Amino acid sequence: MMQTVWGWQPALYLFLGGMGGGCFLTAAILYLKDAAHNRRTVCASMWAATISLAVGLLLLLAELITPVRGLMMWQSFSHFTSWMTFGAWGAFAAIVVFGLSAIFATEKVKVPASVRRTLAIIGIVLGAFVAVYTGMLLMAPASVPFWNTPLLPLLFTVSAFDTGVALVEVMAAAAARKDPLAADAKRFLERCVVVLVLVEMVVLAAFMVAALAGSGSDAEGATAAASAAMLVEGPLAGWFWVLLVAAGLALPLAVAIAGLAKSGRDEASESTPLTATNSAAATNPVAAPAPSDTAADDKASTAVAPSAQLPSQDAAVAPSTQLPSQDAAGTEAVAAAPSPATKPTGLSRWLPLVGACGALAGGCALRFLVLAAGVHANLVADTIIALIG
Asked: What is the pLDDT of residues 236-250, one digit of tens each?
C-alpha cells in the first residue's frame, strides 16, 4: 500500500537537518585546520548549524500525533529498533555538541583549546551521522519503492555535505567585512564544492537510471520508474531540471571552478615580481657601495689602493654567504605565515554567494522532489498553496 501521510514538514527537516550536519562538519574542519583565523565564519556557521538542526527536529516532531509528548524522548524514543529512534537521539546529541561548540566559539567565552578540539571532532562524527540519517529515514518505509534503494542515503548524504559547505560560504560572505575568509580556507571550500557536486551528479544519475530501469521488472519496479519519470519528463520536470540540476548543481560547480581559476591567476601574478627580483639579485649579488659622507672619507678611499681595499670589503660584506641565508630565511618566513585574508570586492564577493544560494535552493528542492515523486503527490505545489494561504 502506498504511503501518503508525508507532509511538507519532513521534507524541510530532511533539508535543514542534513544541511546543519554538513555545515557544522565543514566549520569544524576549518577550525581544526587553522584555529587562529576565520573565527567569525566558524562561529557563525556553528550557530547556523545548531539552529538549522533544532528547527528541523521540531518540524519532524510536529508530524507526530502528540508533538508535546515527542519532546519526552526517553518515553517516545525508547525502542532502539528503528531509524527514527536512532535519529532522534543522534540529532539530540548533535544539537547539544553543536550548541556548546557555538557558545565556546564566541569571542567573549574563554575555554581551553583542547575542549574545543574535542567537541569539534565529536561534532564531525555526529554531523556525518545526521547527514546519513536523513536518507535512511526515507529508505526505511518499504511501501515506497522509489525510496527503497541504498542510493538514496548516499545521495542525501552528499547533498547534505554540499549544502553544508554552501551555508558556510553564506556565513563567510556575511562576515567578510570584519573577518574575511583566509585564502587557504576559500580554496578549500571551492575544492569541496567541485568534488561534492561532481559526486552528487554521479549519484543522482545512478539513482535516476536505476529507478527508470525497473519499469519492466515487477510492480514495485514499475512504481519506482513512474516516480522517476515524474521528475525527468513529468509534472515535476521543470523543478527538477531548472531548480535542482541547473541552479543546485551546475551553477555552484561553475562558480567554484571560476574561483579556483582566479586564485591560480592571482598566485601566478604575485609570484612573477618575486621571481624577477630573485633573478636580478642572482645576476648582481654585490650592491654598489654607498657614497662617503665627508670629503675626508673620499680622500681616504682614493689614497688606499683598490687591490687592498676590495678584499676587506668582501670580507665585511660577504655577499656570497649572507644573501643565500637571507633568501632562505625569507622563504621560511613566507612559508610559515598563513595565507593573507583580503576583503573581497565586486564579483569576487557576490559570485560565491550566488553559487551558495543556488546550492541551497537545489538541496531543498531535492528533498521535496524525491518526497513528492515517491508518494505521487506534488508536495511543492501543495506547500506553496499552504504557505500563501
From this structure: 999 999 999 999 999
- Tell me how far CA of residue 11 lies from CA of 21, 51, 63, in angstroms: 16, 17, 11
Residue pair 3/376 in contact (Cβ under 8 Å)? The answer is no
Q: Using CA atoms, how far apart are residues 227 and 128, in angstroms rounded to an integer?
A: 28
Domains, the chain, ranges and CATH?
8-268+344-388 (1.20.1630.10)
Those residues of the chain that have pLDDT short of 50 are 1-4, 74, 286-337, 377-381, 384-385, 388-389
SS in 3 state form for 116-173? HHHHHHHHHHHHHHHHHHHHHHHHCCCCCCCCCCCHHHHHHHHHHHHHHHHHHHHHHH
Q: Which residues contact 262 (CB under 8 A, 6 or more apart)?
A: 348
Residues contacting 66, CB < 8 A, separation 6+? none
- The answer, as to whether pTM is greater than 0.90, is no
The closest of 10, 18, 48 to 168, measured between CA atoms, is 48
